[in-house]
Amino acid sequence: MAQAHAQQAQAWPTAPIRMVIPFPPGGGTDILSRLVSNKLAETNKWTVVAENRPGAGGTIGIAEAAKARPNGYTMVMGQKDNMAVAPWLYKNLAYDPTRDLTPVAHVAYTPVVIVTSANSRFKTLADVVNAARSAPGTIPYGSPGNGTTIHLAGEALNNVAGIKLVHVPYKGSSAAMTDVMGGTLDLALSSVPSALSQIRSGKLRALAVTSAARSTSLPDVPTVSESGYKGFDVSTWYGVFLPAGAPKDVVVRLNGEVNRLLDTPDMKKAIHAQGAEPQAMSPEKFSALLQGDYRSMKDIVKQAGVTIE
């Protein structure tokens, strides 16, 4: 039996592999998905067809992939928002990420960065916390929308610091950062790629990043953990999933192929160019990450009081 499984994995793939991308062309998920699918095809002489299936915060594409035959020929690029956050936001989600999909290979993560105006009174995250404790409910922060990981990073900070920053949802990060630079908004939380050029130009001051480690793109900016809240880690991650029930040997082989790609200089450079951090994991470690975030996001979403019909 073991020999038969090994032969199956060796023979796979014998047909084109479909990569479902649950967001429109041009965004971060699309770029990372195409980097992975193109490199898998180029390195292994496979045929990998990338297909965008956007809608409902990525949940439409995830649901489509979850319902595909579990034969190793449909994979999807999931991310934290649609795998660990969406189940607690949407009342009638068409999939259960912990039951209907198999975590295969973690690809990268992107920190959230907390920014303020270059002219702001806030020089450090401690300044923000002290001001918020002195005057609860008076300091607003902008995010790119309700229920995003970026929004929930702000709620997680409220929880660990015992403060009440007031959430102001925007339609995207750009509008929030414009208001911060204009002085009408105290703080914004943003992905690193969205804020990077304004930070480097000196128009925004970066106070902290929310990941466990510092951002390669912002090496001088401390983490929230370094700023006094040990263990704080709220990032958006991206990874490859197969439908539940996919052959174990195919999972192991695909994990190995993706991890090899992540170790190449070209791939590292391409991912860093997107403001993301490449990070390889075993399927077991990636599954543990999903399970942990799935549980922790439940409490954060509940406390934030956000739901999406």
Automatic annotation (TrEMBL):
CDD domains: PBP2_Bug27
Domain of life (superkingdom): Bacteria
Cited InterPro entries: BUG, Bug_dom1
Alphabetized SUPFAM superfamilies for the sequence: Periplasmic binding protein-like II (SSF53850)
Cross-referenced Pfam families: TctC
Family indicated by similarity: Belongs to the UPF0065 (bug) family.
Protein name in the entry: Tripartite tricarboxylate transporter substrate binding protein
